[in-house]
Structure formats: structure tokens, C-alpha cells
Amino acid sequence: MVSARTIERWSWRLFALGLVAAAVVSYWDYPQRWHTPGYWLRNLIMYWLYWAPRLAGVFMLTGFVSRLWNVRGGQRLLAMLMTVGTLIGLWSSLVEPQQLRVRETVVSGIPAGAEPVRLAVIADVHWGLFFRDGQLRSLVERLNALDVDAVLVAGDWTHEPTRDLKAGLAPLADIRHPVFGVLGNHDVESPGPPLTAPLREALQAHGVQLIEGVEVVWKGWSLVGLDDHWGGSPGSQITRLWPAGAITPSTASNRIVLAHQPDTLALIPPKGAYLAIAGHTHGGQIWIPGFTPWWLRNTNSEQPWWNGRYASAVGHIFVTPGVGTVGLPARLGVRPTIDLLALQR
Asked: Which residues contact 70 (CB under 8 A, 6 or more apart)?
């Protein structure tokens, strides 16, 4: 019978081997993708953070669990804490990012002349480094299973994706609903690789209607898209689309505005939309009470709109927590989400 000490010893050997394998796979994966200029070391570290839990995580967990049987007193308590921490890390990196959910929100009191509609809202797909091809295909399957009138995508389609954008994004062509979208900061080099033009081409080739700076009349609604707050010119678009004196609350009441960042929505004139939609925050992505709200307000958004529906001077605000990850390949307490918005009388 193999002893717990032998299991621990071999677990740490295999753990070290897994870390080396993760570095090798990361080095192999790296040349096949677009990269943000000047961030090569950061990117390699993020690749390693993606592959290490998959290739070494189970050995780390086995090492700490077996250590519980080999030590006593304070060392055993430490081993127990490390076991719990490892379990949380593996859950957040391997399990929760795969737990795509559908969350329905009803918004009543739509304006006269606008049809009741059901909208699937997603954002922050970040297809590429952390959100791989299989997840993109699963996302499309979930969208196709929904009874909705359209899909709205609030930007950040990519994050260090593979070189052939048109081939990689091909599953989007299978979405059976109309798709309207805008680009996010990672799509327009803020930060991100210089892929904006080929990304636009690939999305449009697969049936996505990009609507930044334009107004689209649809089912009695006026769909308006705005540029990214960091990498575009939403202010000038707002000045043009909401000219002073020409747009009144009654004429703007049927507007659905789509932008990437909540801060962009705050620039819209008061009562300038019935519903304004954004993403970008990831709902915090890793929710640590007290810390995550502080982090969001100081690094991500000046507005306290992070996840869900809010009342504002602009109109109804809705922020979706997104489906992908960035920075760390992990989610904790904030599951990837398709938001289904039912706009009704």
C-alpha cells in the first residue's frame, strides 16, 4: 500500500513537471496569436496562468491533501488552509468560467409605438487567450436556444485571439437571430493588438451589424451604438445624435443605446434613452466583498453601475457581467452571463 508521504512526494514532483509543461505549452501557443504591443512578458505570464491550473493544478491539490496526513499541529492547519485555497483557485479557473447562465430581467412600460421585444445581451467575450474556440461554439448554441428577437453585444469581442479572425469567429455566422454590436477597448487598442480593421471585416462577414455612431430603426425602436470610451470618440457621436433642442424626452424615449463602458452611458443627455446597455466591468469578475467595489470604482468605471439594472437620469441602465475573462483566467462569485431583457408594456 502506498503511503501518504510517498503520494505527497510524487505529487510535488508531478506538480513541478506540470509547471514546466505549462511554460512549454505557453511558449508554443504564443506565436499563433495577436498580441498587444509592448506587453510580451505580461502575455506570456497570462498564458502560463491559463495552462498551469490545467496541467499542474490537480497535483498541487493532491500534494496538500496528502500533506494533511503527514503533519500535525500548526503545519496541519497551514496545509488545510492551502488545500482550501487551492480548491478555490481551481474552481475559479477551471469550473466557474464554464458555468454560463441565462439571467432574465423584465423592463416594463415601453413607449407607445415600440414593439415588445426580447433581447439577448452579452459582452466581453474576449475570445482568444482565455476564452477558447469550444466556449465560443457553446455560447452560440446557448444563444440559438433562446427565444429572443435579437442579440446585442456590448464590445470586447477579443483578447489576444488567433491570427485568422475570420476563421476563428466563424461560429458567429450560425447565430439564428439578428446580431447588433459595438467594439470595446480591447478591440480598439486600448489596450489591445492592432486588429480593429480585420476584426470589423470578420464580424461583418459573419452577419454582425456594427452600429457605432449610427441609428438603426428596428421594430419601432431606435438602436444607437456608441464608440468605446477609452479608444473612440463617443462624445462627438453623442453631440451629433442628440443635438441640443432637436431631441426631446418624447422623441428619445424609444432609443436603446449600446456602448461598451458604463462611463459612456453617463455622457448621454438626461432622459436621452429608454434603455442604455453596457458591459466592460465583468461584474467584478472575482468578487471580494469590500475590495472589488473599490477596485471597480478606481480602475474600471467612475459610475456605480457594475452588474444588472439601475435607474438613472439617462433612463434605464443595464450592465451585463459578460461571458469571458481578462487579466486573470478566472471568475469567482460572478458567473458568465447571457442577460435576457424582456421589454414589455
From this structure: 4, 5, 8
Question: What's the whole-model pTM score?
Answer: 0.94
Q: Which three cell numbers stand for residue 265?
A: 452611458
Q: What is the largest CA-CA distance in the chain?
A: 84
Residue 164: all three cell numbers together: 485568422
Evaluate whether 50 touches 129 at the Cβ level (below 8 Å). yes
How many angstroms separate the CA atoms of 330 and 97, rounded?
A: 6
Cell output for 142: 446557448
244 torsion bin: left (phi>0), alpha (psi -120 to 50), beta (else): beta
pLDDT tens digits along 247-304: 777 677 899 999 999 999 999 999 999 999 999 999 999 999 999 999 999 888 899 9
d(CA 125, CA 194): 18
DSSP state letters, 106-160: EEE-PPTTPPPEEEEEE----EETTB-HHHHHHHHHHHHTS--SEEEEES--EES
The candidate with the shortest Cα–Cα distance to 270, out of 238, 298, 225, 296, is 238
Query: Is the confidence at residue 160, as pLDDT, over 80?
Result: yes
Question: Is residue 259 classed exposed, middle or buried when 0-12, 13-18 and 19+ CB atoms within 10 A define those classes?
Answer: buried
Residues 6 or more apart whose Cβ sits within 8 Å of residue 65: 83
Instruction: Tell me if 204 sits within 8 A of 210, measured CB to CB.
Output: yes
Joined together, the cell numbers standing for residue 325 give 475573462
Peptide bond into 53 cis (omega under 30): no
